[in-house]
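Co-fold these.
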Amino acid sequence: MVSIKDVAKQAGVAISTVSKVLNGYPNVSEETKKKVNQAVEELNFVPNTVAAALSSKQSGRVAMLLNLGNISQAVDEIHMQYIAGTIGRAVELNLDVITIFDSMLKSKSLDEVVRYLRSQSITGLIIFGMSKEDRVLHRLIDAQLFKIVTVDAPLVNLCSSAIWIDQEAAQYAVAKKTLKENAGKSILYLAGKKNGYVSAERLKGMQRLAEEEGLSLLVRNGEFSERLARELTFRYARKKNIVVCASDMMAIGAMRALMDMDIFRPVCGFDGITLMGYAGKQMNTVRQDFARIASKAVEELKRLLDGGEGRQIVLDYELVRMKYEDVLI
Amino acid sequence: MVSIKDVAKQAGVAISTVSKVLNGYPNVSEETKKKVNQAVEELNFVPNTVAAALSSKQSGRVAMLLNLGNISQAVDEIHMQYIAGTIGRAVELNLDVITIFDSMLKSKSLDEVVRYLRSQSITGLIIFGMSKEDRVLHRLIDAQLFKIVTVDAPLVNLCSSAIWIDQEAAQYAVAKKTLKENAGKSILYLAGKKNGYVSAERLKGMQRLAEEEGLSLLVRNGEFSERLARELTFRYARKKNIVVCASDMMAIGAMRALMDMDIFRPVCGFDGITLMGYAGKQMNTVRQDFARIASKAVEELKRLLDGGEGRQIVLDYELVRMKYEDVLI
DNA sequence: ATATTCATGGAAAACGATTTCCGAAGCATG
DNA sequence: CATGCTTCGGAAATCGTTTTCCATGAATAT
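Predicted complex below.
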């Protein structure tokens, strides 16, 4: 294998000099740089990232942590977007990514998790869809041992940034739009998980709208489950209801239930997943560009790794009405 | 960080002895083993996989290579299953996995690909959904530089194994079942990609059945595209046709088209993706357990890395009839 | 001309494992 | 008792980088 040593020999300089050129350190003359770069070209040299990671304890090895708790097709799509977005951007930024599922961390103590990450020379972490209740992860963030970007959880300190779309505003907006298109005074709201950060925000948005518009609002917990949403709709939906759901999967379940009951009232969802095109009826929803969110998260992590301080980033969303033709590719 | 050196000190032995114990090498007395293991416990030691990889050029770092060519929701589900299956099993077998997309390798020469893999200290590779035409990957396998497992491509040599379900038989079986349930003599077969290994096999299965049963068979290339399948169905489907598709996505497209034409004839698919539950009508299909296939692929790669020779592995499949209630979770 | 700075490049020590080789016991054999 | 064989444990080289620190010579200041 072509190593930095070979490059040094070819260029007639020392190993350390090659390293300096490669990493853009100062105190190297233009002339020497040229020699080194030429040697790199000639030998078609690619640095060994593993050795770099070992040596520097810093060279960009990061992990993405996915919460696979609730498996479903929708989640597949969202996670796949996250993965593709993360890995794609990471390659461009010269970061190595390893993918971790929450299940691998479950029943591990903070100490063990830290040790595991260290054993992999991981210095940065992107956490997707973290629950309010995850003690270990919260302490991991507090410890400030790693650079961390959380997606959809508002946890910011010196070493960690948070990135999300404004869930409250989005829920408010999509419900308002649906309401405008279909007169109604009574809303059945199927909320997400009790301990989810996003669920709480979305619920707030719905409550604000209800208050402003003087709507009657019935809230039930749907746990992001299509099946549960279906059952709740059977149980609680009335002919005059508008059913607003905290996720598309729940919206699909609710819509199915309404169709079975021969009630033709609007349902609106949240996420903008492809499956909405197959729900049988068009629905309003909030499209989140998951790949872009992930890509931004990687960029933010890179900034943290380069010494930046933690901060909040809010991305935009889009209100859409999804139908089959939109998702057909 | 706790290193092997600390363990050695704690146990009162040499570094090399610790390493031998950890890796199960011979020539260590039970007594010494006990001392070392105790020290490992006490210090809560976890070996640094990065250092191990660098040092041994062997310690299980593997890559999974996904062909994301055709993005679609169905593909999301399949790939997500592949990823979860691979990573999950890899953790259990103490392998580190990095995920690579074909797009990262595109327009790279064999040399560059080899170099890239080496730069990551990767010794093993699982390739999902490889095309017949990918020159670089074929040469990579021929070169026998890495241990490789291909999923759905029959490429076997000393260093590489192949794993798949019997596509020919499965296509034959599902079409036959559909035919039995719905009398018919004339079949429209929407095939997959011209250069896919699986597409060719499935087509063979269909042709064998047509010959055996004396059916009239019209074959068109649907490229695994829902949209194209829809268009082809509009164009070629007749009232007496049974439409057999080489993938579920195409089956869904075909079914939509038939419904639009008010033709009520069966369609059958292939893959067993969740989306089939939302197609509007029940369809027969072949369920492949993608997570299990991936998990098996990891096991096989592990065997190769441990010195085993390449071989073929054929996994089983299941004929199912998919409806909404089956996919609702 | 001498002293002081500065830019530049090199030598060498990490990083945390693996692995080869070698020496010291321990034991049986002749 | 000397010899040869095992068995076991340790010293040291190695993997391919990064990074610290030092030496050199040129440039500047005195």
